[in-house]
Amino acid sequence: MEKETTRCPLCHFDNSAEAFFCAKWGTNLGLKETPQFSKTMMMTTPVPELQRGKMFAGRYEVIEALGRGGMGSVYRVEDKKVNEEIALKLINPEIARDERIIERFSHELKVARRISHRNICRMYDLGEADGSHFITMEYVQGEDLRSLLKRIGRLPEDKALSIARQVADGLTEAHHLGIIHRDLKPGNIMVDREGNAKIMDFGIARSAKAKVVTATGMIIGTPDYMSPEQAEAKELDGRSDIYSLGVILYEMTTGKIPFEGETALAVAMKHKSEKPRDPRELNP
Fold this sequence. Notes:
This protein is of the alpha+beta class. The chain has 2 domains: 55-138, Phosphorylase Kinase, domain 1 (2-Layer Sandwich); 143-281, Transferase(Phosphotransferase) domain 1 (Transferase(Phosphotransferase), domain 1, Orthogonal Bundle), CATH 1.10.510.10. The chain has helices at residues 93-96, 99-112, 145-152, 157-176, 228-231, 238-254, 264-273; strands spanning 5-7, 14-16, 55-56, 60-68, 72-79, 84-91, 123-129, 132-138, 143-144, 179-180, 189-191, 197-199, 206-207. A 6-stranded antiparallel sheet has the order 3-4-5-6-8-7. Strands 9-11-12 form a 3-stranded antiparallel sheet. Helix 4 packs antiparallel against helix 6 (238-254). It is globular, with a radius of gyration of 20 Å.
């Protein structure tokens, strides 16, 4: 008789049926409605790296690596089929091996491709090559807002307002189409040298008018910028993105995020139960 196990929703490790937490990641294995948070997702499978000059998927020539995050590695490539520079994101193997996640990406990419706006990065395609899944998108030359804030700290008022206004314009278009971002944060906003802002990563966007595949008990988002209803794993609408934009505006004008905590869960709960410090105390 096969021994009963409880599978971790994050790393898929089979724990004993009596376990409350994953032996590998410490993930809560209890009630389905209990939110699961992880600021940094550790990968047990090496993430493939693309070398400069390498031809990937028969059409994308690698120009340079742009960065790496929880979802995967991003490269600037030239699409030889249309002679255009685009961005290519290799999805981390630990994420891509879950068919439910790939199905969700496929659905939500179709949703995200409906958005055409100057302040939103265009999403193109989801593909698979050399054993890796990847997403292609518009290449935006510039610096993400996270890096900008780290480099110069609090932004001048006119620059902060300009970025916030542009992001609001992009969200207005997306929300008009019934699409919400669900993970709006400084790392997902690119700013070029002229001060033009574009929202990135609508790849995990969810249409407010359609059901999509989600992992049981999983919350997609970054606790520092997460709305209270998202922290409770409730149904979301465009107001959740507006809340996240408010947190970003707070950080741009004060140089600090509203809430800090020792754990991601502690931060998320503060968004639900506490009031932030008056920003005027940090910047009159």
